[in-house]
Write a structure and sequence with these properties.
alpha/beta; Aminopeptidase; Aminopeptidase i, Domain 2; 2 domains; 9-stranded mixed beta sheet; 13 helices; zinc ion binding; aspartyl aminopeptidase; protease
Length: about 500
């Protein structure tokens, strides 16, 4: 199966010089976590990976020498390859990232109006720099639950309206002379996007008739055309080629309509939203498939990448890093008879042995030193864009890096000729965190935190480095290729 795709993997890897361009295309195709998972699935499909479902048996599908992926909620994805020499108790090399970013999401009842303007109610998701959303051209994307007219079954469809539809206008300086000293606003009442003029609205008695329950009918929740502006619902239906009455519900997100692009005098920057953390989704995805070019015939371990949803709000969800997604899939893989050489009901210590020998590279973006605020950084730890991935260290365990892990990653980076940087937050500054501490405490797997440096983290428009993409892909590729044979040299040194 997967072996037939190795020739293609080698051919496709020749495009690595175009990683910055490929990343820009990836960013523009991924306005939401649902779109990101869809694009990642397409990538693995090209390499012959097979989709697994948590709802169904994996009999006859999961084998040594194969590549597979599993999704949950269409917003988290886990992909892996099984070495031909895999045996129970052997190590697993894992990279981890997250698909979500701080955004504004449309509320379940979003229809608003004020002073002749049609407005859309939005909810703040995550810790965004919300003032950066003012005056941006905003579009809408997300997932729509659609009812089949013949069967009445409901399915999920992705939508991206791909046009500037909304604007959160700032107040003119003439009406707020202190705006350049301090920009303050009420997030509930002054972060409301303008969607149009009420005088131009196509709201009609016809739409009200369609939305209203017929005699004898009962609806527990009002129809979408009652809860949202009819013009918005019409746009969604038109984009999907369906009738408005087929829309049961949707989860829609606002995003910056201005496309991602390469910038700087030498195109050394990537300008885009969602660099946190589609950067690591992109690099781990390519790292796993780049590693295919050496084949799986001699591989004794499992190589895995996982991208979780909901990191920006604490990871506590059914598809977040604090869920059972990774532990459940690990147990299912390691207990599976076809690759465990044991009956499915036999429980032994092989799962714990594999966990003890495994390693998790928690990859999230890092803070690049800001030239205008250099005093905010620890004086000896100032990561620079274009100088390679950043290993993040924190004595209070906000990051999981320790000396054995650092030594292991250092040696892997030296083999791949990838430069690394170190970051420690200043003692007088707060420190963020990642999925690393959650996964380490939940699974017991050894973990290290690292990521590519960016500026303006959590802004609607962030800045990253185009060269750093290849550095991280090379590091992940080397990690996948060599970890299973190298880990004992660090964690079980000879005496």
């Amino acid at each position: 199966m997967l072996r037939l795709q190795l020739r293609k993997a080698c051919a496709m890897s020749d495009h690595k010089a175009n990683y910055p361009h490929e990343f820009v295309k990836f960013l523009n195709a991924c306005p939401t976590p649902y779109h990101a998972v869809h694009e990642i699935k397409k990538h693995f499909d090209e390499y012959g990976f097979k989709e697994l479902s948590e709802r169904h048996s994996w009999d006859g599908v999961l084998t040594r020498g194969g590549g597979f992926y599993v999704t949950r909620n269409d917003s988290s994805i886990l992909a892996f390859t099984v070495g031909c020499q895999w045996a129970p108790g052997n190590p697993i090399a894992i990279t981890g990232a997250h698909t979500d970013s701080p955004v504004l999401k449309i509320k379940p009842v979003s229809k608003r109006s004020s002073e002749g303007y049609a407005q859309v109610g939005v909810e703040c998701y995550g810790g965004g720099i919300w003032h950066s959303w003012f005056d941006a051209d905003l579009s809408i994307a997300g997932r729509v639950m659609v009812k089949d007219q013949k069967t009445s079954n409901v399915r999920s469809m992705l939508v991206d309206l791909k046009q500037p539809l909304l604007k959160i206008p700032t107040l003119a300086i003439h009406l707020d002379r202190d705006v350049n000293q301090k920009f303050e606003f009420d997030r509930e009442n002054q972060l409301l996007p303008v969607a149009g003029l009420e005088s131009q609205s196509s709201e009609s008695s016809k739409s009200c008739e369609q939305a209203a329950p017929q005699e004898g009918e009962f609806f527990s929740i009002k129809a979408v055309v009652e809860r949202h502006h009819r013009d918005l619902v019409d746009l969604v239906a038109e984009e999907l080629g369906i009738e408005v009455t087929q829309i049961e519900d949707f989860e829609l997100t606002l995003y910056d309509h201005k496309p991602a692009c390469l910038g700087g005098l030498h195109r050394e920057f990537v300008f885009s939203g969602r660099l946190d953390n589609l950067t690591s989704c992109f690099t781990s995805m390519h790292g796993l498939t780049e590693a295919l070019k050496t084949g799986l015939e001699k591989e004794c371990g499992i190589r895995m990448m996982v991208c979780f949803d909901h990191e920006e709000i604490g990871s506590s969800s059914a598809q977040g890093a604090d869920s059972n997604f990774l532990p459940a899939i690990l147990e299912r893989i390691l207990r599976f008879p076809a690759i465990s050489d044991k009956s499915g009901s036999q429980h032994d210590s092989s799962l714990q042995m594999s966990v003890a020998r495994s390693f998790f590279l928690s990859s999230d973006v890092a803070h690049a030193v800001h030239p205008n605020y250099a005093n905010k950084y620890e004086s000896k730890h100032k990561p620079a864009i274009g100088q390679g991935p950043v290993i993040k260290v924190n004595a209070n365990q906000r990051y999981m890096t320790n000396s054995p892990g650092l030594v292991l990653v250092k040696h892997i980076a030296e083999r791949a000729k990838v430069p690394l940087q170190l970051f420690v937050v200043a003692n007088n500054s707060p420190c963020g965190s990642t999925i690393g501490p959650i996964i380490a405490s939940k699974t017991g797997i050894k973990t290290l935190d690292l990521g590519n440096p960016i500026l303006s983290m959590h802004s609607i428009r962030e800045t990253g480095g185009s060269d750093d993409l290849e550095w991280q892909i090379k590091l992940f590729c080397e990690f996948f290729e060599t970890y299973s044979t190298y880990e004992s040299k660090v964690y079980e040194p000879s005496t």
